[in-house]
Design a protein that fits this description.
Number of domains: 3
CATH class of the largest domain: Mainly Beta
Number of strands: 22
Helix content: under 10%
Shape: flat
Strand content: over 45%
CATH architecture of the largest domain: Beta Barrel
Mean pLDDT: 89
CATH topology of the largest domain: Elongation Factor Tu (Ef-tu), domain 3
Structural class: mainly beta
Order of helices and strands: EEEEEEHEEHEEEEEHEEEEEEHEEE
């Protein structure tokens, strides 16, 4: 006798496709033992006994249990299987490859998505010239495709920008592979032929059916946000924003023998940042990024960076072509110690000072 489920995954499946309520039916017995295994582990990552009612047993929010485990273990994908036991009779749902995804990908085939997208929801990014980004993607068994990098360069001796395409090793995968590319301007320019120089305007990566475009700007960002994106991989956004620093201080007092003394000092530092004008898609992407379970921010106040907590987000967006979308958010460093940055290096004055006007 077969047990029926309201979740029937394909070979590749997003974690967001696990239903809110996972149900098991058509079995004989008063209870079901359920165990979830990831990456063929000896012990289950989660197990419980469910009691039947009306010939069904169910569990609510199993998706969050699995996703929270993958977040803690920094898993982008995992081999998954559900194992059930009723009166010493074993049932199995799986084995399938589960890909972490926080978004509801309605009517989206996971396998086709992986073959045509990097692990990000944004295929275009505005970055400064000193940018540093990681791009990840999954290559499936049997996948083939051409790879190339397309440059748009403004040469000093020419009026119009020049487009140059450099071919790369094509994809010919024999097995499942998780790939990543560490990208910065210096490394990208290193692939150009000798004698080709100028100002880099944009770069487009072609990896099989996947594309991603960087547009480079001379504007220096005031905030750099590093976060775990919807696919549980590192991502980076460069922002221009105005930031206010708010400090609140509170302490308690006691009087003893006519003399006052203070105790329980409490200092709270909170920052409020508001971005410059953003497009509708960029503002939505930033709003989603600020809800990440892991955030790291680099700013003038925190030049070496700090893990942060988002305490409030204000985002009222319009998709009108002339709309000025802004995102305002409040944040505080994860660690309460007040940060201090040495304003200059020691011993930088290594020459004798001569007053010009003497």
């Amino acid at each position: 006798m077969l047990m029926n489920f309201n979740f029937n995954p394909l070979t590749y499946c997003f974690s967001s496709s696990i239903p809110d309520v996972f149900e098991m039916s058509d079995f004989q017995g008063s209870s079901v033992y359920l165990a979830i295994y990831l990456n063929r582990s000896q012990s289950p990552v989660f197990s419980t006994t469910l009691y039947a009612h009306g010939g069904k047993a169910s569990i609510y929010d199993l998706r969050s249990i699995i996703e929270n485990y993958m977040e803690a273990k920094q898993l982008v994908h995992a081999t998954c299987s559900f194992r059930m036991q009723v009166d010493r009779i074993d049932y199995t749902l799986g084995e399938f490859t589960l890909v972490y995804c926080k978004l509801q990908m309605l009517r989206t085939n996971c396998e086709l998505f992986l073959q045509s997208h990097f692990l990000t929801t944004h295929a275009v990014r505005l970055v400064p010239h000193n940018f540093q980004l990681d791009l990840q993607y999954i290559v499936l068994p049997g996948e083939t495709g051409q790879c190339a990098t397309q440059y748009v360069i403004q040469r000093e001796d020419k009026d119009a920008p020049e487009t140059l395409t450099i071919s790369d090793t094509p994809i010919a995968a024999k097995q499942f592979d998780f790939c990543f590319e560490d990208i910065n301007e210096e490394e990208l320019l290193g692939y150009l032929p000798q004698g080709v120089n100028g100002k880099l305007l944009s770069v487009t990566l072609f990896r099989g059916k996947r594309t991603f475009t960087f547009f480079l700007t001379d504007e220096v960002p005031t905030l750099t946000l590093i976060f775990q994106n919807e696919f549980n991989v590192n991502d980076t956004l460069y922002l221009t924003a105005q930031t206010k620093r708010k400090v609140s201080f509170d302490r308690s007092f006691a009087v003893c023998c006519g003399e006052s003394s203070a105790y329980d000092d409490n200092t709270e530092v909170e920052y409020e940042s508001e971005t410059s004008s953003l497009s509708y898609s960029s503002a939505r992407h930033l709003t989603q990024a600020l809800q990440s379970h892991k955030l790291y921010l680099i700013s003038p106040e925190l030049p070496v960076g700090s893990s942060i907590l988002i305490t409030d987000i204000e985002s009222e967006l319009s998709d009108a072509t002339n709309a000025n979308n802004h995102v305002k958010f409040k944040w505080k460093p994860l660690h309460k110690q007040v940060s201090f940055t040495v304003p200059r290096l020691h011993n930088i004055f290594n020459q004798v000072y001569n007053n010009t006007f003497d």
